[in-house]
Amino acid sequence: MSTNWEHIDKCAKEWIKEAGERIHQAFRKTLTIETKSSRSDLVTNVDKEVEQFFIERIRQTFPSHRVLGEEGFGDCISALDGIVWIIDPIDGTMNFIHQRRNFAISIGIFADGIGMLGYVYDVVHDELYYAQKGKGAFLNDQPLPVLQPVSIPEAIICLNASWIIENKQVDPKQLARLVQEVRGTRSYGSAALEMAYIAAGRLDAYLTMRLSPWDFAGGLVIIKEVGGLVTNIDGEPLDLLGPSSVFVSKPGLHREILQQYIRK
Ligand code: IPD
Ligand code: CA
Ligand code: CA
Ligand code: CA
């Protein structure tokens, strides 16, 4: 039986908008905030409720689909066979708590490990970035053009300051040189939005040393549809079942940055 991707896409979009409404309503109430692994690793009642909301809807409508969610209410996934939804109910929880902006709902839907549908929803700005494999990427209903190459001196790259201080993954001196040689740097604190911004042409590259599949699953599908590249810092495809470094960029720039600033 063939999969009706249009139907899955329609449901995903409806549920994302409904989840966005719930997040808006939650702004009127007091948040319950907890820490997970450290004082910067936060979770709220809203992260948990939004993940549970998606899982309920998916299980009712598509009982054979499985879900990998950041907050752990989904399935225990050790292989990517069949249809798997990879969900980050709120990407940028620290921003959600402290800034009430710069966060997004992120969802990637995969069939036997291949990205078929991707969504990043900036709830506060009501901007839905989405893509379906082979059908292009969109911001709300506007098609996003294919990304064009850009040179290092004209590029705006997104990276967190913690990667240009001493760390185990990458040479901070090389990255500091990259920071000096590009036109500008930015850091928004939501990997999903940072990937969506590259897809929309607002940023040229994004580099980080550790993300989980739910952080990048939605963005990955969107970026590929506009001709961007997504790998780890060794230039290999991302692991959808575990943490990895992530390097997203426009074509051309990807090879140049990997070869001249990242490879040790
Ligand atoms: C975080 C954001 C952030 C990234 C962290 C992620 P969360 O996701 O994407 O930009 O630097 O590594 O954990 O926890 O807010 O969903
Ligand atoms: Ca988190
Ligand atoms: Ca996240
Ligand atoms: Ca999250």
Search tags:
alpha+beta, 2 domains, 5-stranded mixed β-sheet, 264 residues, 33% helix, D-Maltodextrin-Binding Protein, domain 2, 7-stranded mixed β-sheet, 14 strands, binds D-MYO-inositol-1-phosphate, Fructose-1,6-Bisphosphatase, Chain A, domain 1, binds calcium ion
Kindly summarize this structure in a few lines.
By secondary structure, the protein is an alpha+beta fold. The chain has seven helices and 14 strands. A seven-stranded mixed sheet has the order 3-4-5-6-7-8-9, with helices on both faces. The chain has a five-stranded mixed sheet with strand order 11-10-12-14-13, with helices on both faces.
Could you characterize what this model shows?
With 264 residues, the chain is an alpha+beta fold. It folds into two domains: 5-143, Fructose-1,6-Bisphosphatase, subunit A, domain 1 (Fructose-1,6-Bisphosphatase, Chain A, domain 1, 2-Layer Sandwich); 152-262, D-Maltodextrin-Binding Protein, domain 2 (3-Layer(aba) Sandwich), CATH 3.40.190. 33% of the residues lie in helices and 27% in strands. The strands form three sheets. Strands 3-4-5-6-7-8-9 form a seven-stranded mixed sheet, with helices on both faces. Strands 11-10-12-14-13 form a five-stranded mixed sheet, with helices on both faces. The longest helix has 22 residues, at 5-26. It starts with a helix and ends with a helix. The relative contact order is 0.13. The model has no long low-confidence stretch (mean pLDDT 96). It binds D-MYO-inositol-1-phosphate and calcium ion (CA) (3 copies). Residues 88, 91, 191, 214-215 line the site of one calcium ion. D-MYO-inositol-1-phosphate binds next to strand 4 and strand 12.
